[in-house]
Amino acid sequence: MATQQMINDLISHAPENKLDIILSFVKFVLHDDDKINNSLLSEVSLSKDWMCAQEDEAWKDL
Questions:
Q1: DSSP code of 18?
Q2: pLDDT score, position 50
Q3: What's the CA gap between 8 and 62, in Å, rounded?
Q4: Crossing angle, helix 43-50 and helix 19-30, to 10 degrees?
Q5: I need a labelling partner for 27 at 20 to 30 A (CA). Which of 2, 34, 38, 40 fits?
Q6: For residue 62, what is the DSSP state?
Q7: Neighbour tally for 22: CB within 10 Å
Q8: pLDDT tens string for the chain (62 positions)?
Q9: From the CB of residue 36, how many other CB atoms can be counted at a distance below 10 Å?
Q10: How far apart are CA 12 and CA 39, in angstroms?
Q11: Nearest 5°: CA angle at 43, between 49 and 51?
């Protein structure tokens, strides 16, 4: 099986909650190192901690 087809098959069976991580990784791999903002690479994983009611409450007065 061709590599492209294997990638397509794997992604088509990936759980919905993993697709944002897969997308971030693909973007990372396809960009030139000098053109990518490395701080954005962690955004997906950090957003799981940041985007919650507890964080909103903690930062509401700032």
A1: G
A2: 72
A3: 44
A4: 150
A5: 2
A6: -
A7: 14
A8: 799 999 999 999 999 989 988 988 888 888 766 666 666 667 777 777 777 788 778 888 87
A9: 14
A10: 28
A11: 30
Q: How many CB atoms lie within 10 A of CB 6?
A: 10
Whole-model pTM? 0.50
- How many whole angstroms separate alpha carbon 48 and alpha carbon 54? 12
Taking the CA of residue 11 as centre, how many other CA atoms within 13 Å lie in the half-sphere pointing to its CB?
13
Q: Where are the domains of the chain?
A: 16-59
Confirm if 41 and 28 have CB atoms less than 8 A apart: yes
